[in-house]
């Protein structure tokens, strides 16, 4: 049996799996509380903590000798096309120095490399969060010198789009769908004829607020906050992604806890969770315009969609646009495995991050 270890660090969870022969052998999701993450000063310092979680999963299974490769979630790199990339020096440098911003996904390539090194097997990432297929008009920000960036749950957005279009008896390459992924971060993508032509960036202060992020903010008020609090760039990043959204309103990023508080009658919990759903719906509406109203399906996915309450809240606003299809959780683990397996089977060549051209 040739097995592949899959490592998926998210902002609120660490997911680990082993696949062999196109089948899931074992999987584990550990969800991290606000307190657990707050012990660390940023993402890179969580490397050992997350490494130990994965090691205990691997050791329990006693399958180390069966592993032929490790594949990790792809993090914040330069804007690149989708595909499977070999983890190499230049990629590790960009992840470790957080050259393109900070997020838990940066640990995917770093941890895959750590495990692969110790076992002397190759490490890969697949369709990182920076996969860029945006059309030229979508790149304009409104201020010369600053472009919009494609940052989101590209891996899952594309896997879900393929599944949804297949279920509709169509193909991804000839359909138009909108996907909203609701994890610790929220990204919303417009997919047209096999490409994510516009994406509401899940990290850099666009679109809806999330369990831990601000989404777009009133700029002047935020500029005043930066000045009056004398904030550095690092502080600003930590506010926008990490200490905003539901965490700032309710002190909580775990939506299961927020829903418990709603059930116990806490009005604020309902108000702010409903607000998040309202903003997600607005982003979906915005992207329906990008697709000129010709939308085959709206796909809602991510951990939040396990909740019927959240699914219902968003659906009520958008179901007039197109049929709403729900994919609770994500299909990332399988997509990561298949990306690495295609390379090992010789069906695809692993791309080289160092030489691949930046998408503009
Ligand atoms: N059964 C559930 N009901 C509601 N929310 C859930 C459920 N399971 C997970 N979530 C929420 O989903 C979010 C995490 O989603 P996930 O896609 O796993 O994200 P990440 O990759 O950011 O860790 C968290 O806010 C978590 O509380
Ligand atoms: C960086 C965008 C992807 C993202 O937000 O992932 P999480 O939901 O895992 O934080």
Automatic annotation (TrEMBL):
Primary residence: cytoplasm
Metal-binding recorded as keyword: no
Domain of life from the UniProt record: Bacteria
Catalysed reactions, as listed in the record: butanoate + ATP = butanoyl phosphate + ADP
An example Gene Ontology biological process: acetate metabolic process
Subcellular location: Cytoplasm
GO cellular component terms, A-Z: cytoplasm
GO molecular-function terms, A-Z: acetate kinase activity; ATP binding; butyrate kinase activity
Keyword field: ATP-binding, Cytoplasm, Kinase, Nucleotide-binding, Transferase
Coiled coil: none
Any single Pfam family the record assigns to this protein: Acetate_kinase
Top class in the EC scheme: transferase
Entries under CDD domains matching the protein: ASKHA_NBD_BK
EC number in record: 2.7.2.7
HAMAP family tied to this protein: Butyrate_kinase
Family: Belongs to the acetokinase family.
Protein name: Probable butyrate kinase
Organism: Vagococcus carniphilus
Gene that this polypeptide is encoded by: buk
């Amino acid at each position: 049996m040739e097995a592949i270890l899959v490592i998926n660090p998210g902002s609120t969870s660490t997911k680990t799996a082993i696949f062999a022969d196109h089948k899931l052998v074992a999987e584990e999701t550990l969800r991290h509380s606000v307190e657990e993450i707050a012990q660390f000063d940023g993402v890179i310092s969580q490397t050992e903590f997350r490494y130990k979680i994965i090691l205990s999963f691997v050791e329990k299974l006693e399958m180390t000798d069966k592993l032929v490769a490790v594949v990790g979630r792809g993090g914040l790199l330069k804007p690149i096309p989708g595909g499977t990339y070999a983890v190499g020096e230049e990629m590790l440098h960009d992840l470790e120095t957080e050259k393109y911003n900070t997020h838990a996904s940066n640990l995917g390539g770093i941890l895959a490399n750590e495990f692969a090194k110790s076992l002397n097997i190759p490490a890969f990432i697949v369709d990182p969060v920076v996969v860029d297929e945006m059309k030229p008009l979508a790149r304009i920000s409104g201020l010369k010198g600053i472009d919009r960036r494609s940052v989101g749950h590209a891996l899952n957005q594309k896997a879900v789009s393929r599944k949804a279009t297949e279920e509709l008896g169509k193909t991804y390459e000839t359909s138009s769908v909108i996907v909203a992924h609701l994890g610790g971060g929220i990204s919303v993508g417009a997919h047209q004829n096999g490409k994510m032509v516009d994406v509401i960036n899940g990290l850099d202060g666009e679109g809806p607020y999330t369990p831990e992020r601000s989404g777009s903010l009133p700029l002047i008020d935020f500029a005043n906050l930066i000045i009056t609090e004398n904030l550095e760039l690092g502080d600003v990043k930590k506010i926008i992604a990490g200490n905003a959204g539901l965490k700032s309103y309710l002190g909580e990023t775990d939506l299961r806890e927020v829903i418990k508080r709603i059930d116990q009658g806490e009005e604020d919990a309902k108000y702010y969770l409903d607000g998040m759903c309202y903003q997600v719906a607005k982003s979906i509406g915005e992207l329906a315009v990008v697709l000129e109203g010709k939308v085959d399906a709206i796909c809602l996915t991510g951990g939040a969609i396990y909740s019927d309450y959240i699914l219902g809240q968003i659906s009520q606003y958008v179901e007039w646009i197109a049929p709403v299809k729900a994919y609770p959780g994500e299909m990332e683990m399988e997509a990561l495995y298949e990306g690495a397996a295609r390379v090992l089977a010789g069906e695809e060549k692993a791309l080289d991050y160092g030489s691949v051209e930046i998408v503009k």
